[in-house]
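Field reference: sequence -> structure
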Amino acid sequence: MARIAIIGSGYVGLTTGACLAHLGHDVVCADVDAEKVARLSNGDVNILEDRLPQLVREGLDDDRLRFVVGAANAAADCEVVFLCVPTPQNPDGTVDLSFIEGASRELAPVLAFEAIVVNKSTVPVGSTRVVERVLERPDVTVVSNPEFLREGSAVQDFLHPDRIVIGSEDQSAAIKVLSLYLGVSAPTVVTDPASAETIKYAANAFLAMKLSFVNAIAAVCEGVGADVDDVLLGLGHDTRIGSEFLRPGPGWGGSCFPKDTKALVRMAEQGGYDFRLLDGVIAVNEEQFARVVDKVRRSAGGDLSGRTVAVWGLTFKAGTDDLRDSPALEIIVRLLDQGALVQAFDPTVSSVDGLPSGTSVVASPMEACERADVLVVLTEWDEFRWQDPAAVAAGMTGRAVVDARNLLDRARWQRHGFDYRGIGR
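Structure field:
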């Protein structure tokens, strides 16, 4: 088993560290936040992620997982060091590598001889070379090993991945990193660093394209009187297409898709290619936000000024507490801009921190609907599916629902007098 350091104990870093400890490795996770380190050292995981708290506790109890403050305090005697630090988006769509560079600078003087540094963060092509340049350690090999973790199923995705991608020009280093995954059964792709870095962006961009295509088809269905659910059912049976990501919605968001699609557009520009297809994918997504808001406006009689809108769901998807680039927040901003009053409920959100100014957060789905003119469903939490439309109607002023996730039973809500508007149906 290997001695491993994880630099960054956020979503990716903590999942990676806990899972590698679960596989039997000796893992130390570092973070700049002393309060977070203290909390994690006590087994307190404040990330909503299935099985993650249990794996952290397991690693602590078995003495295979530790937490320290600072990259330099983690890496001194480790064979492999994973970089799992943020790579935020610059205003022009490019990737900010300052955290990567800062961590590399801190690591340079303390890395063990012939250590391997693994870029786990989502980084543009050429980032392996950036780390090498900052380290100035010819004995140290830098390897790309992109993550493919979905929020809500990150532990499952790490331990049962679709593939493991290793990017390195040093065969022995690639084999060493691959050996860390012994016990994980998955196809492996061993390639050069530039190709490995591109795979991550290409995967996310393709999924974003698929979602934008579905929402565009939903708009066509509304125009011609087709039912998008039946259309997508027929589409998904084609094995060349598959049924995954064939769900219309309010638009895609989250911490990855918006950032990674724009980053790939900029990477393409730098490589001399005008990625107009991906520009169109992004444009369709922006249009989807507007389409949902327009449905709400029409459901309110054509004017949202002074109207109360009940919102069910704030996170970018169910099963997570992540609000980053949530389509729900973008739609709420547009509702507020048109003069609406917004009462929102989400099972994982209890305060207005991180929400658009003017949003009211309440304690239950029913409370959100009190005196509301329109109800809009923006996140596919299962508990919304089973709400009693009669009870909802009793508390509302209006009788309109915009189901931006096609989550609710349309016929059932219509029987209770609701003007139901879904996506593509």
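Note: The chain is about 40% helix and 15% strand.
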